[in-house]
Amino acid sequence: MIVQQKIEQKLNTTFSPIFLEVLNESHMHNVPTGSESHFKVTVVSADFEGQRLITRHRAVNQTLADELQNDIHALAIHTYTESEWNDLNGHSPASPACRGGSLLDTK
Questions:
Q1: Strands (E), the chain
Q2: pLDDT at position 105, please?
Q3: Which residues pair with 38 in a beta bridge?
Q4: Which residues pair with 22 in a beta bridge?
């Protein structure tokens, strides 16, 4: 869980979130057991007030630039203000099923 812990630490430091969830969804994909390559992050932060969705996602991508370049194959990002989060009753969307592909392919 080294990658997951780095993601959590960086997002906590950067956004001081009201709520943070980092889910390792690698097990849902065709990767070796124990992989840390596919993640879903949900970040609820006052920092997102007045920001467009693209600006929020860019901020998360910038925060995790090193992990995205070296460790993460896929990252689902869900960013909310506190009021948006409350409107969703504290739930982010479920991730879709894997549609194929493999990190193990040598093509």
A1: 19-24, 38-44, 74-80
A2: 46
A3: 74
A4: 41
Which helix (H) or strand (E) covers residue 8, if one does? helix 2-15
The share of the chain scoring above pLDDT 90, in percent, equals: 64
**How many other β-carbons are positioned within 10 Å of the β-carbon of residue 6?**
16
Contact status, residue 21 vs residue 93, Cβ threshold 8 Å:
no
Residues contacting residue 35 through CB under 8 Å, at least 6 positions apart: 26, 27, 29, 103
Q: In DSSP terms, which residues pair with 42 in a beta bridge?
A: 21, 78
Residue 5's nearest CA partner among 46, 34, 36 is: 36
Q: pLDDT-derived band of residue 65, with 50, 70 and 90 as boundaries?
A: very high
**What's the token pair of residue 50?**
């007045």
Instruction: Give the pTM.
Output: 0.85
Query: Tokens 């992990």 appear where?
Result: 67
